[in-house]
Amino acid sequence: MTQQLNQKKVAILVTDGFEQVEMTEPKQALEQAGAQSHIISPKSGTVQGWNHFDKGDNFPVNLILDDANPGDYDALLLPGGVANPDQLRTNEKAVKFIKSFFEAGKPVAAICHGPWTLIEADVVKGRTVTSWPSLKTDLRNAGANWVDQEVVVDQGLVTSRNPSDIPAFIDKMVEEFAKGQHQEQRRSA
């Protein structure tokens, strides 16, 4: 992969219970493309990934959410897992952090259950998205056009369904992050 993301800083917002491969593979691809990525979490120390129903590895938190400034980042990655976005969507600071990327027109990539946080940030109305199938009704009720596709790109918002979609998700994520700001992203904020 070329260095198309040189000088870009990407925030990865997670807490315990994220689907490990949905964080590690995109993070590695971002860094291979030249981006700096930071794991940001409401908790300090480490966050624990999961491999579906089994506990996975621990990863160091680069910055606690209280100290994170969305203005310091060019893009946002929201991995899934069930517990991770369910906890983040009830955290007012996490929701505000996510919404700020949309307000600034910055690209956002969310996979699997990650779009749950987008509902809470009130940024999916009128957007075409995909997700883990169990979020379909939630997303539609929030005004999104939910589709069952490997990857969907809607004006700087990249979404995918599950770990098997990661290769397509990574390709589109890197492409959209390289494009940078999208004026159309702001209209959903």
Kindly describe this structure.
The protein is α/β, with parallel strands linked by helices and about 190 residues long. About 30% of the residues lie in helices and about 25% in strands. It contains 7 helices and 12 strands. The strands form 3 sheets. A 7-stranded mixed beta sheet has the order 6-3-1-7-8-12-11, with helices on both faces. A hairpin with a 2-residue loop joins β4 (about 45-50) and β5. α1 (about 20-30) crosses α6 (about 165-180). The radius of gyration is 14 Å and the shape is globular. The N and C termini lie far apart (about 30 Å).
Write a concise keyword list for the protein shown above:
about 190 residues; alpha/beta; 3-stranded mixed β-sheet; 7 helices; about 25% strand
Summarize the structure.
The chain is an alpha/beta fold and 189 residues long.
Strand order of the largest sheet: 6-3-1-7-8-12-11
Number of discrete helical segments: 7
Strand composition percent:
25-35%
Task: Specify the overall morphology.
Answer: globular
**Number of E-state strands:** 12
Structural class: alpha/beta
SSE string, helices as H and strands as E = EEHEEEEEHHEHEHEEEHH
Distance between the termini: 32 Å
The averaged pLDDT comes out at 94
- Rg, rounded, reads 14 Å
Sheet with the most strands?
A: 7 strands, mixed
Portion of residues within helices: 25-40%
Low-confidence stretches: none
Instruction: Identify the quaternary structure here.
Output: single chain
